[in-house]
Amino acid sequence: MFRYTSIARIRRPAIAGISALTLGIGAAAWAATAASAAQAPAAAATCATSALSVWVDPDQSDGAAGTDAYPLEITNHGSRACTLDGYPGVSATTLGGRQLGDAASREPVFAATRVTIQAGGTAHADLFYHDVAVVTAGCKPAQASLIKVYPPNSKQADTGFFSLQVCTLKNHGYLSVSVIRSGARLDV
Known about the structure:
The protein is an alpha+beta fold.
Protein backbone atom coordinates (compact mmCIF):
# COMPACT_ATOMS: atom_id res chain seq x y z
CA MET A 1 0.00 0.00 0.00
CA PHE A 2 2.84 2.33 0.74
CA ARG A 3 4.11 1.89 -2.78
CA TYR A 4 0.70 2.60 -4.34
CA THR A 5 0.33 5.78 -2.27
CA SER A 6 3.73 7.12 -3.24
CA ILE A 7 3.09 6.49 -6.94
CA ALA A 8 -0.29 8.18 -6.67
CA ARG A 9 1.36 11.12 -4.92
CA ILE A 10 3.87 11.43 -7.72
CA ARG A 11 1.38 10.85 -10.57
CA ARG A 12 -1.18 13.46 -9.49
CA PRO A 13 1.28 16.38 -9.25
CA ALA A 14 2.93 15.28 -12.52
CA ILE A 15 -0.41 15.15 -14.34
CA ALA A 16 -1.46 18.47 -12.82
CA GLY A 17 1.84 20.04 -13.89
CA ILE A 18 1.61 18.71 -17.44
CA SER A 19 -2.02 19.86 -17.68
CA ALA A 20 -1.14 23.34 -16.45
CA LEU A 21 1.76 23.53 -18.89
CA THR A 22 -0.46 22.42 -21.78
CA LEU A 23 -3.16 24.94 -20.87
CA GLY A 24 -0.54 27.67 -20.49
CA ILE A 25 0.98 26.95 -23.90
CA GLY A 26 -2.48 26.85 -25.49
CA ALA A 27 -3.49 30.13 -23.87
CA ALA A 28 -0.23 31.78 -24.95
CA ALA A 29 -0.70 30.56 -28.52
CA TRP A 30 -4.30 31.82 -28.54
CA ALA A 31 -3.23 35.21 -27.15
CA ALA A 32 -0.45 35.55 -29.73
CA THR A 33 -2.85 34.67 -32.54
CA ALA A 34 -5.45 37.14 -31.26
CA ALA A 35 -2.82 39.87 -30.88
CA SER A 36 -1.43 39.38 -34.36
CA ALA A 37 -4.94 39.43 -35.81
CA ALA A 38 -5.64 42.69 -34.00
CA GLN A 39 -2.39 44.25 -35.21
CA ALA A 40 -2.84 43.26 -38.86
CA PRO A 41 -6.16 44.68 -40.06
CA ALA A 42 -7.35 43.68 -43.50
CA ALA A 43 -5.98 45.93 -46.23
CA ALA A 44 -8.46 48.51 -47.46
CA ALA A 45 -9.69 48.15 -51.04
CA THR A 46 -8.93 50.71 -53.75
CA CYS A 47 -11.36 53.63 -53.66
CA ALA A 48 -14.23 53.36 -56.12
CA THR A 49 -14.97 56.61 -57.93
CA SER A 50 -18.61 56.28 -56.88
CA ALA A 51 -17.51 56.55 -53.20
CA LEU A 52 -15.51 59.76 -53.77
CA SER A 53 -16.29 63.46 -54.08
CA VAL A 54 -13.78 65.90 -55.56
CA TRP A 55 -13.62 69.63 -54.98
CA VAL A 56 -11.25 72.55 -55.15
CA ASP A 57 -11.10 75.22 -52.47
CA PRO A 58 -10.23 78.40 -54.41
CA ASP A 59 -9.88 80.37 -51.16
CA GLN A 60 -6.89 78.23 -50.12
CA SER A 61 -4.68 79.00 -53.12
CA ASP A 62 -1.11 80.10 -52.88
CA GLY A 63 1.40 80.78 -55.58
CA ALA A 64 4.03 82.91 -57.19
CA ALA A 65 5.44 83.83 -60.58
CA GLY A 66 2.32 83.04 -62.62
CA THR A 67 1.44 79.72 -60.94
CA ASP A 68 -1.24 79.21 -58.32
CA ALA A 69 -1.54 76.02 -56.27
CA TYR A 70 -5.02 74.92 -55.21
CA PRO A 71 -5.95 72.04 -52.94
CA LEU A 72 -7.70 69.31 -54.92
CA GLU A 73 -9.61 67.60 -52.12
CA ILE A 74 -10.84 64.01 -52.46
CA THR A 75 -13.39 62.93 -49.84
CA ASN A 76 -14.43 59.33 -49.18
CA HIS A 77 -18.19 59.38 -48.60
CA GLY A 78 -18.30 55.57 -48.56
CA SER A 79 -18.88 53.49 -45.44
CA ARG A 80 -15.38 51.91 -45.35
CA ALA A 81 -11.79 53.05 -45.61
CA CYS A 82 -10.24 52.83 -49.06
CA THR A 83 -6.86 53.52 -50.67
CA LEU A 84 -5.44 55.57 -53.53
CA ASP A 85 -1.90 55.60 -54.86
CA GLY A 86 -0.42 58.01 -57.41
CA TYR A 87 -1.54 60.85 -59.64
CA PRO A 88 -5.16 61.69 -60.36
CA GLY A 89 -6.07 62.54 -63.95
CA VAL A 90 -7.41 66.10 -64.12
CA SER A 91 -8.83 68.25 -66.90
CA ALA A 92 -10.94 71.40 -67.14
CA THR A 93 -14.32 71.17 -68.88
CA THR A 94 -17.38 73.15 -69.83
CA LEU A 95 -20.65 72.67 -67.93
CA GLY A 96 -21.57 70.20 -70.68
CA GLY A 97 -18.44 68.13 -70.00
CA ARG A 98 -16.36 69.07 -73.08
CA GLN A 99 -12.65 69.11 -72.23
CA LEU A 100 -10.89 72.44 -72.77
CA GLY A 101 -7.24 72.13 -73.74
CA ASP A 102 -4.80 69.59 -72.37
CA ALA A 103 -5.24 67.41 -69.32
CA ALA A 104 -3.04 68.27 -66.34
CA SER A 105 0.54 67.09 -66.51
CA ARG A 106 2.22 65.35 -63.58
CA GLU A 107 4.16 67.52 -61.14
CA PRO A 108 6.74 65.25 -59.42
CA VAL A 109 7.14 67.28 -56.21
CA PHE A 110 6.30 64.36 -53.87
CA ALA A 111 6.91 60.61 -53.99
CA ALA A 112 3.81 58.49 -54.52
CA THR A 113 2.70 56.41 -51.53
CA ARG A 114 -0.46 54.43 -50.80
CA VAL A 115 -2.91 56.69 -48.98
CA THR A 116 -5.73 55.27 -46.87
CA ILE A 117 -8.80 57.51 -46.70
CA GLN A 118 -11.07 56.65 -43.78
CA ALA A 119 -14.85 56.74 -44.28
CA GLY A 120 -15.75 60.43 -44.18
CA GLY A 121 -12.07 61.39 -44.49
CA THR A 122 -10.29 63.48 -47.08
CA ALA A 123 -7.01 63.25 -48.98
CA HIS A 124 -5.61 65.85 -51.34
CA ALA A 125 -3.36 66.61 -54.27
CA ASP A 126 -2.04 70.00 -55.33
CA LEU A 127 -3.55 71.38 -58.51
CA PHE A 128 -1.21 73.89 -60.15
CA TYR A 129 -2.71 76.50 -62.49
CA HIS A 130 -0.17 78.17 -64.76
CA ASP A 131 -1.93 81.36 -65.85
CA VAL A 132 1.09 82.45 -67.89
CA ALA A 133 0.33 79.64 -70.35
CA VAL A 134 -3.25 80.93 -70.70
CA VAL A 135 -2.36 84.53 -71.49
CA THR A 136 0.33 83.75 -74.09
CA ALA A 137 -0.36 84.78 -77.68
CA GLY A 138 -2.56 82.44 -79.67
CA CYS A 139 -3.82 80.44 -76.69
CA LYS A 140 -7.54 81.03 -77.37
CA PRO A 141 -8.64 81.36 -73.73
CA ALA A 142 -12.07 80.14 -72.62
CA GLN A 143 -13.90 79.88 -69.31
CA ALA A 144 -14.02 76.42 -67.73
CA SER A 145 -16.73 75.64 -65.19
CA LEU A 146 -15.77 72.17 -63.95
CA ILE A 147 -12.79 69.94 -63.37
CA LYS A 148 -12.98 66.29 -64.23
CA VAL A 149 -10.93 64.07 -61.92
CA TYR A 150 -10.01 60.43 -62.49
CA PRO A 151 -8.74 58.76 -59.31
CA PRO A 152 -5.41 56.95 -59.92
CA ASN A 153 -5.84 53.78 -62.00
CA SER A 154 -9.54 54.43 -62.61
CA LYS A 155 -11.49 54.74 -65.84
CA GLN A 156 -14.39 56.57 -64.18
CA ALA A 157 -14.25 60.26 -63.31
CA ASP A 158 -15.98 62.56 -60.88
CA THR A 159 -16.49 66.28 -61.46
CA GLY A 160 -16.23 69.30 -59.21
CA PHE A 161 -16.99 72.97 -59.72
CA PHE A 162 -13.99 75.14 -60.48
CA SER A 163 -14.26 78.23 -62.65
CA LEU A 164 -11.04 79.35 -64.32
CA GLN A 165 -9.68 80.80 -67.55
CA VAL A 166 -8.10 78.04 -69.62
CA CYS A 167 -6.16 77.58 -72.83
CA THR A 168 -8.13 75.67 -75.46
CA LEU A 169 -5.15 74.88 -77.71
CA LYS A 170 -3.37 71.55 -77.49
CA ASN A 171 0.22 71.47 -76.24
CA HIS A 172 -0.23 74.57 -74.06
CA GLY A 173 -0.14 73.00 -70.61
CA TYR A 174 -1.82 75.23 -68.08
CA LEU A 175 -2.58 72.60 -65.38
CA SER A 176 -0.39 70.17 -63.48
CA VAL A 177 -1.11 67.97 -60.47
CA SER A 178 0.85 66.31 -57.68
CA VAL A 179 0.32 62.83 -56.26
CA ILE A 180 -2.44 62.25 -53.73
CA ARG A 181 -1.36 62.68 -50.12
CA SER A 182 -2.97 62.00 -46.75
CA GLY A 183 -5.39 64.40 -45.12
CA ALA A 184 -7.09 67.54 -46.29
CA ARG A 185 -4.57 70.15 -47.34
CA LEU A 186 -5.47 72.25 -44.31
CA ASP A 187 -4.62 69.26 -42.07
CA VAL A 188 -1.09 68.93 -43.38
